[in-house]
């Protein structure tokens, strides 16, 4: 009478065969597993409102802080009646605790000029936005909610947020 072959060597041989022959695979995280771009901002001590609503994807290199945030299309809106902001469909830069540096893809209209916002630094309860040649500080509570593309905080004729004095801190009032 022939003895049956033990099960363990058969399973081991089958597993090794699959490892050698089967194509490699990766485990992809689902969207539910990843934090949103907005919660990621909060983890670096920034309010969600520095990004408009509508980020569809993002990536972050955790070792360097290099990030990209993507919208379906470019995004423009006015704030406080005197600022026009423009976000390209992809913005990028470096993020660390209280700092966004080497930003690309975000512009602000000051008087008749479009200037790139290149850096945002949180200093206590203020955010300092730099356009390279000058900077402006804003209270952090102005950024607790995200504006909407096209209408900012005044969508459908409803003010979503109270406006401040309408000052333009990028322009000196000497």
Strand-pairing-aware structural class: mainly beta
Give the N-terminus to C-terminus distance in angstroms. Answer: 105 Å
Poorly predicted tracts of residues: 5-30, 160-174
User: What is the alpha-carbon Rg in Å?
Assistant: 24 Å
Report on this structure:
- By secondary structure, the chain is mainly beta.
- The protein is 13% helix and 38% strand.
- The protein is built from two helices and eleven strands; from the N terminus they run ααβββββββββββ.
- A hairpin with a 2-residue loop joins strand 5 and strand 6.
- The longest helix has 15 residues, at 7-21.
Features:
at5g01610, DUF538 DOMAIN; DUF538; signal; mainly beta; 13% helix; 174 residues; At5g01610-like; nine-stranded antiparallel β-sheet
